[in-house]
Amino acid sequence: MRNAARIARRELRGGLRGFRVFLACLTLGVAAIAAVGLVRAAIEAGLTDQGAVLLGGDAQMEFTYRFATPEEKAWMEARAERVSEVVEFRSMAVVGEDRALTQVKGVDGLYPLEGEVELDPPFPLEEALADRGLPGAVMDRVLADRLGLSVGESFRLGTRNFRLGAVLVREPDSITGGFSFGPRTLVHSSALTSSGLLEPGTLYETEYRLDLPAGTDLAAAQAEAEAAFRDKGMRWSDSRRASPGVERFVDRTGSFLVLVGLAGLAVGGVGISAAVRAYLEGKVATIATLRTLGAEGRTIFLAYLFQIGALTALGVAAGLLLGVLLPLAASPFIEASLPFPVTFGIYPAPLLEAAFYGILTAFIFTLWPLARAESVRAAALYRGTGEGGRPRWPWLAAIGGLTALLVGGAVAFSGTALLALASAGGIVGALLILAMAALLLRRAARSAARSRLARGRTALRLALASIGGPRQEATSVVLSLGLGLSVLAAVGQIDANLRSAIERDLPARAPSYFFVDIQQDQIEGFLSTLRGDAAVSRVEAAPMLRGVLTRINGRPAREVAGEHWVVRGDRGISYAARPDETARVVAGTFWPEDYQGPPQVSFAAEEAAEIGLKLGDRLTVNILGRDIEAEITSLREVDFSSAGMGFVMVMNPAALAGAPHTFIATVYAEPEAEGRILRELATAYPNITAIRVKDAIERVSEALSAIATATAWAAAATLVTGFVVLIGAAAAGERGRIYEAAVLKTLGATRARILASFALRSGLLGGAAGLVAILAGGLAGWAVMTFVMDASYRFEPVSALAIVVGGVLATLLAGLLFALRPLRSRPAQVLRAQE
């Protein structure tokens, strides 16, 4: 150990020549993972620190389509210092012939309990909402501009007119409302009483924000509230996790981007391995001398392992520093682009995670060339070859153990075992495919160099012979560039297929509008109006209630179903006397049309299989505060992907008799008639809310585009690492190219022919890497679309062509950068130096 440490120290005094690619690859990979982790931690810290402001209070009790009962209000008032009531729903804002969907929030005089509402002009909220002949309202600027409204002008919600008191700049609790279809409008709850918008069965939610005494145990308060009211459809949230949906999205997206960063580290690992191998080849004379003087193989192994350890520490430290500086430098832009608070700082957890990945990757990819050098004899080294045999089994076991530790760490840190394992499997599979492709490419090039194809084409023959030669340049280029391009190809294929599904498939079958809040006495006139319109091809309508699945076979639903989406929050429920023609019964029997017995429910078959439900199970559903227990008597195949009407749960009509409810409808119409249909229905039924499906699809498309952009940036970082490896491979092969050029010049080759040979070599390698990347990226895209997105996959050729062109250009650039010295070299000097 002492001798090995002394040798390592003395060699490192010679500088970092030979390890620049090693350090660059490690630094870039660690920096990418650290930067993503710090941004995720900053968002999570901001959500935690500002939890009460984001929620609008210390805690919130939410009810579906009803106000709290006197008993529930008394419970809140007994425990909170202040209680603020908020009601939220969708409606249509109307100005003359113009109308637009808006998310209405009715507030009381205490709103907001925490934070401040920012308005333009900067009035107090109470002044902006004051009744001056007409009740006041504040409206998001986008909506006001869309309707052409100025402050002081009037508009209509339902059957009541309102005055625009100010433009809404920011509301402190905006992100806790989840996904909304329209811009925000704030009014006083008292002004909604005569608007016709909160009739029995209307789709709305009430939120009661609680200002609790200092020191209140939020966990105990939650347990007490859920014990008292959970079976009545109450949902609790508090400042500990003010926006769990945003937290979950940020956490999952961050985990995914870290896994993409791991792909970048794998690319860097190829460069690390190549750099170590090239460094050891340059140390042939040193290692030979040490072996001649009696140094054992393990002494030499330890000496270079110590060097790798020291350089790994340097590379990881540089990566962590860069990973900290990049988010801090970009913090103003990130804060301005996100709709929630971000608290930037130096958080240890993501830095430790990045260091963990960097250290393990460095040692996994260096143990193989180090272990091979251990088994090389001095005589073989003096003959000029640094290649050893296969590493001994302890080193192979160590590589396997470190790889397993790396994958286990990815599973533990990501919190999504399936995603982490799939990503790790994809990276390993891509590396195996690329390694096999590199081997086949070398053999094919070797054969092609001797074939008729190369006869008379000197530059091509030289390029093919170089690719098929004994040097490892082809393997390094195909592995590093191929893996980076594979990640980019997968992102391109997934993004293209998602956009295709949105832009091509859905509009072909999706309805023009969803209409909600159709009262029971309006549904017949509504349907007759539309069915008599020649521009309407189809109308579907169904009764609509909302309920919370609280128990399954007497047990709390979340104990049985976990975090399945069906038990998270309230779900749409309908009733029917016969099965809908679009939902086929695949198990059990639907009830007779005149059935009047105990409640029965028909459940969506796919969701039932995911939760583990079967025929005969009993479900307790809370609807408007009333528990209804029903037996599953049939399972239906429901297609939710059509953007049409579909319900997870449908009950027999008698089970919901007397429950206040409204109807929803989907309308399929010619695009040019959509505006006219909306105007006619809105005039006849001002309380009805219309949701344009194309607008909703655009909102989803924007969210998907943001995710795709973030992923593309992460993939670009992987590609940058791959380009660094290319530079390293080209630099490592420069000495061989100098000798090759000298021999060719001696034999009469011109500089142009030598340059053409170098360019062809680079282009062939880049093209091969791009073609293999298309295969690997296409497989990854197909797997994600088929098994994760549950959607069809279609190969997208434009991005695939761009991948091949990018691969060729990247290798050409890297190769030509290191072609100048070989072209300028004097054959006499080079050949004398080889004697």
UniProtKB/TrEMBL annotation:
Domain MacB-like periplasmic core: start-end pairs: 24-227
Transmembrane domains' residue ranges: 256-280, 301-334, 354-371, 392-413, 419-441, 712-733, 754-780, 800-820
Ranges for domain ABC3 transporter permease C-terminal: 260-372, 715-825
Domain of life: Bacteria
UniProt entry keywords in alphabetical sequence: Cell membrane, Membrane, Transmembrane, Transmembrane helix
Subcellular location: Cell membrane
One Gene Ontology cellular component annotation held by this UniProt entry: plasma membrane
Topology class, membrane: Multi-pass membrane protein
Matches recorded under PANTHER family: INNER MEMBRANE PROTEIN, MEMBRANE COMPONENT OF PREDICTED ABC SUPERFAMILY METABOLITE UPTAKE TRANSPORTER
Protein name, UniProt field: ABC efflux transporter, fused inner membrane domains
